Amino acid sequence: MVIDKESCYFLGKILRTSGLKGDVSVFLDVDEPESYAGLDSVFVERKGALVPYFIESVRIRPNGAVFHFEDTGFEDAQALVGSSLYLPLELLPTLTGKQFYFHEVRGFEVVDVHAGSIGVLREIWDNAAQPLLCIDHPSGKEIMIPLVDDFLVEVDRENRVLKVEAPEGLVEFYLEDSRE
């Protein structure tokens, strides 16, 4: 079975070995680590490819977990340190209402309650301050809107529309002609 990153989501990263029996300490980049206690396998990124690894045991810890993969000794575990872990997208719980996964809304039309349709969502930049909606306007210009609850009005999955209420003047700022 061949699987690629586009059909998966990032679960976490192997930080270090744990003990001498082949266990690895894993950072889980998820909201509820305890919901991953029953995992039976993950995809480990090895030399650019996603390789399935079967899990013998999972112990949830604060900020992560300790995994023991089948047929993995200490030296095998050492070789996995630094590797990223992935799971198929279909294993993500379904979100409703205004909650969404960043990958889920790429390509959605973005409609501002005041300016109307302002383009297509290319990506969401997840930076330290706050995520930013990066929108490709039909004029070729890029519009960036902070992704905060106050600016997000509705997520219409059926029609692939993200409805926002951008701060006053923000959309116009990006669309102004920069020639003075």
Outline the secondary-structure elements.
Elements: E1 8-18, E2 23-28, E3 41-46, E4 49-61, E5 64-69, H1 74-80, E6 84-88, E7 109-112, E8 116-126, E9 131-136, E10 142-146, E11 152-156, E12 161-164, H2 170-175
Parallel strand pairs: 7-12
Antiparallel strand pairs: 1-2, 1-6, 2-5, 3-4, 3-6, 4-5, 7-8, 8-9, 9-10, 11-12
Quick overview:
By secondary structure, this protein is mainly beta. It has 2 helices and 12 strands.
Runs in which pLDDT lies below 50 for 5 or more consecutive residues are none
* Major sheet: arrangement of strands: 1-2-5-4-3-6
By CATH reckoning, the class of the largest domain would read: Mainly Beta
CATH superfamily of the largest domain: RimM
Q: What name does the CATH topology of the largest domain carry?
A: Elongation Factor Tu (Ef-tu), domain 3
How many distinct domains?
2
Report strand %. over 45%
- Straight-line N-to-C gap: 57 Å
Q: What descriptive keywords fit this protein?
A:
180 residues; mainly beta; Elongation Factor Tu (Ef-tu), domain 3; SH3 type barrels; six-stranded antiparallel β-barrel; 46% strand; elongated
Question: How would you explain this protein's 3D organization?
Answer:
It is a single chain. This protein has 180 residues and is mainly beta. It has two domains: 86 residues, RimM (Elongation Factor Tu (Ef-tu), domain 3, Beta Barrel), CATH 2.40.30; 74 residues, Roll (SH3 type barrels), CATH 2.30.30.240. Helix content is 7%, strand content 46%. The chain has two helices and twelve strands. The strands form two sheets. The protein has a six-stranded antiparallel barrel. A six-stranded mixed β-sheet has the order 10-9-8-7-12-11. A hairpin with a 5-residue loop joins β9 and β10. The termini are far apart.
